[in-house]
Structure formats: structure tokens, C-alpha cells
Design a protein that fits this description.
The complex is a heterodimer of chains A (about 150) and B (about 300). Chain A is built from three helices and eleven strands. Chain A is mainly beta and about 150 residues long. In chain A, the strands form three sheets. Chain A has a five-stranded antiparallel beta sheet, with helices on one face. Chain B has two domains: about 130 residues, Aspartate/ornithine carbamoyltransferase (Rossmann fold, 3-Layer(aba) Sandwich); about 160 residues, 3-Layer(aba) Sandwich (Rossmann fold), CATH 3.40.50.1370. Chain B contains ten helices and nine strands. In chain B, helix 2 packs across helix 10 and helix 5 packs across helix 6. Classes of the chains: A mainly beta (about 150), B alpha/beta (about 300). At the A-B interface, loops of A face helix 4 of B.
Chain lengths: ~150, ~300
């Protein structure tokens, strides 16, 4: 297990920090934006279109010397439901767990309904997760449902 | 929700629906009172809807309250670019309750979360119109003597018609059987059929508006098929008369059958139906007054039965 991890994380071994693995390639830069990584002054490694046995290709993001609050990481689940978080200390994986979609998403997703109040008023969006397995969301305000492939981030 | 706003019919549980119907019945017997004496109700109609506004304003007036408001966004500060939030906060300073209609979906829910006073949704775009559903339920209850174990046939535009969707949701507490009669372009969306299956509600779907279906129906809920809903205008021309009701079609119906329609109707109910004992759509509209009196009192925490 340890050997596998080492192989997987060999792109640039991290002494301390957070590795987000198993991101669909097409969602990598959305995750970068979601976590606000471009505004950080720590080193960030972004892997893109890497071979993955499970996913075909995948993306991976490594952020040195930083951990994120769990509720922040869980936002990733909206666009990368199978992403796995690895917490690295002294080159070793000390914690590894999948992201979990929160019950409610505040100001993360944009409503696709142009007639929705959230698209016409300066306010935060709010979505309820109605189907966790297929990532189906419902707008708290206009009650329109948004399926997994229709999700647009704010 | 900590206040008694009414935004969506799904905000109400079975007991709350039944309590509102009981109070609507009370107001039908006692339409005039002073229950709202000293209260000011704002009717904010960001989109014109004369029928709904008059019904709400009559309800307030008959309860002895006062009404302020506007009937068109052109006459409000919205036309100067004011946000909905600012309008709602400003009006909250003056009124005890806001009844609002808005062309944007979710506007009423948002207002209910920012306003310090309760909000009643009188329609938000194509989304919700809970007082319509309450008057439909009251009409069904009044004509059938019960809400349970009824067969309800919905005809016409089942895809875009928010009234049929809300009615379907509200009826799930009462073990209904549904017939959905519509052409392919306007059939009941999958999510509502899934809702029925999830709740164990029996339904059947058909394209034929036949007497066979009518004869096993307790409530015949007609809706308008609108030309603008069709991508193919030929298709509209082909189906537009298939979902019209004529008096002759009611000859073999159950004696308790009533025909409901949210109005306005165009040709989907022919004039000769008006003279049959099954026609109920005009009384249905009047029931809106009593249902709205009940909703307004609930919102203000006033119980006429206490």
C-alpha cells in the first residue's frame, strides 16, 4: 500500500501538505479556482491528463505546507465526486479519505435557470443535494434541478 | 421556517393543509370580520395579475385590514433599478404582511428569508402559486366531502402547468389515483411521475381524452394548451382541439364529478359545459377568497376558530 502511494505521488514528492487525487482531468482547473489556489504563495503542482487505471486519465493537485478545512475540501465533490484527499506529513500519507458532498452548497454553483432570482439579484446561491449518487442538485430558490453534467460553478 | 410565510405548497404538511381547509370553510360561512383590524397588508405585484390581486385584497378587506401596494413594477422603485431586497426591507417597515407576485422564480423564497415580516407567495414566475393549490384543494374537499381516495384526471398542458404539479404534490397525502391526459409534447414530466412512484401513488398516462377516462373520474382538472409551448406549430394545430371538453362527453360521468380549471379558459372547456351540474370553475375561483383569508390569518398568527 505504502509502495503504491509512493509511486502514485512520485510526480513531485511532497514533504508536507495536501494532495488531491482522482480529479477528472476536465475538472482540474475548476478545482484550482474553487480552492483559490492561484492566490496562494505556497508551491502548487498541478498534474493533468495523467494515466489512471481507474479513470483513464486523471488530474492531481499538490499543495505544499497547507491543509484545508474539511468543508472547503468537500466543495470539490460537486465537480470531482471521486476525488481523494491525502494529507502528507514528512513524506508519508497520514490521512487519506474521499471527499463527501455536503447536503447544501452555498454560493458555489450557479443556477442554470435565467429566470431564477439568484441570477438577477446580488445574492448568494444555495443548492440542496437531492441525489447524492448522481450529483443532482436543486436550487433552494427557484426549485429547478441541475444534473451532474449541467453544473456551472459561480 | 420560523415565521408563517407560505412560499411553496410543499412547506405545508398534511395537518397544516387540513387546518387551512377547516378555516377556509369557516370563512365561507363568516366572510366578514374584524380579525385584521389595525393590520396593514402590502400587495406587491411586480408583474400584473388582476385576478389574484383582487382576490387577496378582497380577502384583507373582508377581514377588516388595510391594503397598501402596487399592481405593476413600473410604478415601483424597481423601475429605477432598486434591488428586490431593498424594496422588501422598505415595505417591511410599513406593513405586517407582504403578499407578493414576481416574474422571477425564487423571488418569494428570497424575500421570506430577508424580511422581518411574513411573506405570502402569490406566484413567482413559473415556479409556485400555493394559494391556487389551496383553493383547488378546498374546491375538491367541498365538492367531494373528502380529499382521500379520489381519482383525479388532469388534462391539457401537464408539462408547464405549475397548478397541476403543485396539486399533485399536495394530494400525495390523500391516496389519490391520477390520470394524466396530454399529447407527447406536453406530458407530465418524469420527475413528477417519479414522485408518484416514490409515494406509491397509482397513475396512468394516455394521449386520448376519452369518455372511458372521464367516466371513472371524480375530479376533472382541465388546463389550457398554449400555442407558445409548441416548437412545432403544426403539432399545435393538430392537437389543440383534442383536449377540449364538451357537455356531451359528460353524459356517462359519475354523479359527483366536478370540472375544475385554474382560469382563464379559452376553448378547452366549451360554453355548453357551463350549464352542466359538473361545471365548477367559477365557484372554484370564489373559493380562492376563503382559502386566501385562511392563509392570511395563518401568516399573521390569527386563528378564527380560537
Amino acid at each position: 500500500m505504502k509502495l503504491n502511494n509512493k509511486k502514485e505521488l512520485a510526480v513531485a514528492a511532497l514533504e508536507n501538505g495536501t494532495v488531491i487525487d482522482h480529479i477528472p482531468s476536465k475538472s482540474v482547473f475548476k478545482v484550482v479556482n474553487l480552492l483559490g489556489l492561484k492566490d496562494l504563495n505556497v508551491s502548487v503542482t498541478i498534474g493533468y491528463n495523467l494515466d489512471s487505471r481507474r479513470m483513464g486519465t486523471k488530474g492531481i493537485i499538490k499543495v505544499a505546507d497547507m491543509t484545508f478545512p474539511e468543508h472547503v475540501l468537500n466543495r470539490i465533490a460537486v465537480i470531482a465526486p471521486n476525488a481523494v484527499i491525502n494529507i502528507i506529513r514528512d513524506y508519508a500519507v497520514v490521512d487519506k479519505h474521499p471527499v463527501t458532498l455536503p447536503d447544501e452548497l452555498i454560493d458555489i454553483v450557479q443556477c442554470n435557470n435565467p429566470q431564477c432570482i439568484t441570477n438577477n439579484e446580488p445574492m448568494r446561491t444555495r443548492f440542496h443535494v437531492v441525489d447524492r449518487d448522481n450529483t443532482v442538485l436543486r436550487c433552494h430558490f427557484c426549485e429547478h434541478t441541475v444534473s451532474h453534467d449541467e453544473i456551472t460553478l459561480k | 421556517m420560523d415565521n408563517k410565510s407560505l412560499i411553496s405548497i410543499s412547506d405545508l404538511n398534511k395537518d397544516e393543509i387540513l387546518a387551512l381547509l377547516q378555516r377556509a370553510q369557516y370563512f365561507e360561512q363568516n366572510p366578514n370580520s374584524h380579525l385584521l383590524q389595525g393590520k396593514v397588508v402590502a400587495t406587491l405585484f411586480f408583474e400584473p395579475s388582476t385576478r389574484t390581486r383582487l382576490s387577496f385584497e378582497t380577502a384583507v378587506n373582508r377581514l377588516g385590514g388595510r391594503v397598501i401596494g402596487f399592481s405593476d413594477a413600473k410604478t415601483s422603485s424597481q423601475s429605477k433599478g432598486e434591488t428586490l431586497k431593498d424594496t422588501i426591507m422598505m415595505v417591511s417597515n410599513y406593513a405586517d404582511l407582504i403578499v407578493m407576485r414576481h416574474y422571477l422564480e425564487g423571488a418569494a423564497r428570497y424575500a421570506s428569508e430577508i424580511a422581518p415580516i411574513p411573506i405570502i407567495n402569490a406566484g413567482d414566475g413559473a415556479n409556485q402559486h400555493p394559494s391556487q393549490t389551496m383553493l383547488d384543494l378546498y374546491s375538491i374537499y367541498k365538492t367531494q366531502g373528502r380529499l382521500t381516495d379520489l381519482t383525479i384526471t388532469m388534462v391539457g398542458d401537464l408539462k408547464y402547468g405549475r397548478t397541476v404539479h403543485s396539486l399533485l404534490e399536495a394530494m400525495h397525502y390523500f391516496n389519490p389515483t391520477f390520470n394524466f391526459v396530454a399529447c407527447d409534447e406536453l406530458k407530465m414530466p418524469e420527475q413528477y411521475k417519479q414522485f408518484c412512484r416514490g409515494k406509491g401513488i397509482a397513475y396512468q398516462e394516455t394521449r386520448d381524452f376519452s369518455e372511458e377516462i372521464i367516466n371513472q373520474t371524480d375530479i376533472l382538472y382541465m388546463t389550457r394548451v398554449q400555442r407558445e409551448r409548441f416548437s412545432d406549430i403544426m403539432e399545435y394545430e393538430r392537437v389543440k382541439n383534442l383536449y377540449n371538453l364538451h357537455a356531451a362527453m359528460l353524459q356517462g360521468c359519475r354523479p359527483n364529478l366536478k370540472v375544475l380549471h385554474p382560469l382563464p379558459r379559452i376553448t378547452e372547456i366549451s360554453q355548453d359545459v357551463d350549464d352542466t351540474p359538473q361545471a365548477y370553475y367559477f365557484e372554484q375561483a370564489r373559493n380562492g377568497l376563503y382559502a386566501r383569508q385562511a392563509i392570511i390569518c395563518r401568516a399573521l398568527g390569527i386563528d378564527p376558530l380560537l
